[in-house]
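REQUEST FORM: STRUCTURE PREDICTION
Request ID: SP-0412
Submitted by: Lab K.M.
Chain count: 1
Length (residues): 130
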Amino acid sequence: MAISPAMYTAATALNAFGIGTQVTAHNLANVLTDGFKAGRTTYQDLPQYSGVAAQVQAGLGPDGPLVPAQGLPRDPRTAPWVQQGFLEGSNTDVAREMVNLIVTHRGYQANAKAVPTVDSMLGTVINLKV
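STATUS: Completed
RESULT:
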């Protein structure tokens, strides 16, 4: 027995939004990690299957702010434009990640609600046939 297209769409969307939540959680967990580049999740329609796929792009975005490196010697004779003794901080924007978390949560929630709705509709159709 084949899975209904509506159930397949909801199942693939649940998987895609789950991946998006994992990427956002990973970004937030590394907000204080020097040199960390935040990843992004893009969602793509699968027209031939009427589903949703998630694609993860790691290490995107602008450079992070410069933060003083712990334990590295500073040379006062260097030119002021040389940033010796500094490391690139994380480029994770907490506000953007919280918005992404809300969006993925609502998408997951909507598709989670679709699963029992489709199940109920299929049960009604089966009962009509009997």
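NOTES: The mean pLDDT is 80.
Reviewed by: T.R.
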